[in-house]
Batch of 2 targets.
Target 1
Amino acid sequence: MFKKEIQMKDFDLIIVGAGPGGSMAAKTAAEKGLKTIFFERSRKPGEKNSSGCGLGPRMFRDFPEMMNELTPDKCPSMRAGTASRNYFVNKDDIVAGYIMARPTESVSYEPAKSWITMNVYRSEFDPWIAKFATDAGAKLTVSTLIVDLLKDSGKVCGVIDENGEKYRAPLVIGADGVISTVAQKSGLRNKWAQNQVTLVPQYDFQAPSDRIDDIMGDETLGVWWGSNFPASYQVFFNDGFHQGLGNWMNWWDSNPLYYLNRVINLKYYQRLLKILDAKPRELQVHLLPWLDFPNNTHADGVILIGDAGGFPCPLEAEGIYPAMVTGKIAAEVASEVISSEDVSKSTLKKFDEKWQQTSIGQEFEAGFELWNIWKALPFSPKETMSWFVPMIMEILGGIFDWSQPHALRVRQIISHIRSYMPKATPFIMAYIFPLLTKVFEDDLDKLMDPKKIMKVLPKLLDMLPQKKKKKGV
Ligand SMILES: Cc1cc2nc3c(=O)[nH]c(=O)nc-3n(C[C@H](O)[C@H](O)[C@H](O)COP(=O)(O)OP(=O)(O)OC[C@H]3O[C@@H](n4cnc5c(N)ncnc54)[C@H](O)[C@@H]3O)c2cc1C
């Protein structure tokens, strides 16, 4: 029966979506000799995507043969950078301070010491990556919206486009992004829960490239940690930048643009716009999955990858790299199962087993704890950031005051920081402690060894200063 279906098929593998995930899957499948077709609803890959993004070092480490070919002549919007600036904005909408972050001494991947992100526009990046797939022999069909799955006796055996055209293959990869037709039609997911998907408005600003060079230097990223808005990201490209923010669907109590405009209207931000000579170019609104763990990734004859499968990073939703990794793995699994003629759900479990062994799998091991911290901190501006910002600034900046003797300032600062403890302690216990416990779960017995603690404790007590004798006594 299965053999008969195989003979009737037009393709070995169908991929819906030509984003980074779909293209990576198509490239890998074609290289493995599978007759592969991938569909894109837009006129070209990248046309309807989130206009720009940052590519992280893991992409260059894991896909060097491709990524080393990504040069400014192929992708003119590209801007690489070594620094990110974290602005802390207090409840009066004042930038209370900032931290400039560069790769630190503990960074172990050598190239990541010289840059932290490579920013590109998706209208350039997505066609560039799709070409690897077509060069490898995969067939790209654009301007084609897939509306349903083709089924034979209830089993998935292909896809149907909006004109009713049918395409057959024993396996379909859903690489069709956050609103995945493949996920819906296969019964894997009807819709996301409200706390699994974020709404992200963003402005795209145009700015002269030499102004960005002069003013921002090698700063390519900014995060505005707000007390009145969810953390807002800033990504610099060659001739412009994005300013956006997001939160889960169940969070918004006002129009999301109200919150984004609070960032844009900060005095500090307006000054930046002025000196950068920046002009708004486009306003975009996107959805982005943001989960603590991707469940329901496969069914009989179907695998979901990238955003369709819910793979963006649980801490800060980096999504291109997970889409490429899961795309590659899904195609490798496809090549194995198609030759063994078994595309059942239980066999496709291999997909989960394989991605869980990658860097993505490691990330999701602490997925709940990471997701939970993001929820409680940058995604809870009024509840948490409103006290977190002044507390951090007290720690980092309190000493830069010369209105009192410095010893007195130290006392004032410490006593002020203690006043935050009723809020900070429960936060640390509820969110930071579980993450640390998770991260160190394999070493807990070593770290908490009571014998070692008892050895160190007296030494620490010895180091405490003796109480000063009062003068003249
Ligand atoms: C505002 C914003 C900023 C982001 N910034 C970053 C960042 O800096 N770095 C990062 O790594 N990630 C970032 N992400 C996440 C990243 O964009 C996604 O995780 C990534 O694009 C997922 O890739 P994908 O291939 O799974 O899906 P997508 O890129 O969404 O591609 C899906 C493709 O399928 C097509 N399609 C959909 N439905 C159909 C259909 N029925 N038929 C045919 N074609 C279809 C779409 O047109 C699209 O081209 C950001 C996301 C947003 C929203």
Target 2
Amino acid sequence: MSQTAIRASGLYKRFRTGKTYIEVLKRIEFDCNHGEVTMVMGPSGSGKSTLIAALSGLLRPDEGRVEALGDSLWNMPAGKIDKFRLDNCGFIFQGFNLFPALTALQQVQIVLKYQGLDAAAARKRASGALEEVGLGPRMHQRPDSLSGGEKQRVAIARAIAKNPRLLFADEPTSALDTENGVVVTRLLRRAATEHGAAVICVTHDPRLEAFADRVIHIEDGRITDDVRRTPAMAAQ
Ligand SMILES: Nc1ncnc2c1ncn2[C@@H]1O[C@H](COP(=O)(O)OP(=O)(O)O)[C@@H](O)[C@H]1O
Ligand SMILES: [Mg+2]
């Protein structure tokens, strides 16, 4: 039986724009399980990134609760929320967010050092993660000599190296061609199937549905559809 990783209820968030407010999350109920890829789809501006930010401790909702790994996320003091993210969450974004001056190996190592691993252990774990995403031969290259697909694989290695219980991906394939998009999505699938992470992947790319255990549609701050499915391409 799958184990619940996150359960959120009544999530409400609005932003001030001039004199009025725009409601972005309109009391959302959400849950996701370990070992599963939960896809959140919806048009641009529907609230997907805001939802991920509220679920992962990046942006405090105005109302509602998030139970993450059994803890009430937004009831923790700020420092504990940061520690929770560091210990438990991996993030993959559309724009890769790599440091230009660091090699692939250093990008991954630096996160592990923050977590308290010593240099030798960080190096070993980082090179293992880069091997896992197929970048072993490129680990000493910097971002400017890597393709878009390779850069995103570095970002994935960085996210999975600490073996996070929660893996958040926000439009991870939208800067990639189809082939690289599939490679990246397979790696997310594998993080769920082989490592038991709860993968929450936001996208508006319908081709990614094939990899999901569950597809949630969001429109204008509300969940409009929530469908369980069998992933066509199991852990490969
Ligand atoms: N910090 C902010 N201040 C004001 N409006 C924002 C802010 N962040 C997001 N929004 C607005 O909230 C809506 C939803 O944004 P977002 O969650 O980024 O949507 P999506 O990721 O689905 O494209 C958009 O209309 C966006 O302009
Ligand atoms: Mg977004």
